[in-house]
Amino acid sequence: MNYKGKITTSGTSEAIRLEKELFRQNPEFKQQAEVRADIIGPGKMLISVVSPPAPFVEEDPIVGAFLSFLENDMLKNPGSITPLDEHTIAQAKALTANVVLSEDDFDD
Question: Does some domain include residue 106?
Fold first, then answer.
């Protein structure tokens, strides 16, 4: 789903006004909710609710956006979900059979 808006000012701050329907359909973006904006590319921004404050966990905003997209697609199109079959599992095992990982592979 996408929503239209405009950049404006509110007091001495810059603001983004968005369609009221966004807030009706997504109550987590209620007034006074604390949000975070991540720039994910030229002209692209990901806005996430961060209140109530949660313990800090560094997340990749791209992965989070992709997982949200998948969740929404699965909810809207449950008939497109198919079980993972043995053949696909065997293919994945064959493709990764010689891959060796170490703890260093997971450091930033």
Answer: no
Question: Residue 39: helix, strand or coil by DSSP?
Answer: strand
pTM: 0.48
Q: Model confidence over 59-100: pLDDT tens digits? A: 788 888 899 899 989 999 999 998 899 999 999 999 999 998
Task: For residue 47, give the 3-state DSSP assignment.
Answer: strand
CATH of the domain at 27: 2.10.260
pLDDT tens column, 16-53: 999 999 988 888 888 888 899 999 888 999 999 887 65
Residue 21 is part of which domain span? 5-96
Q: Does residue 81 sit within a domain?
A: yes
Q: Per the structure, how many domains does the chain have? A: 1
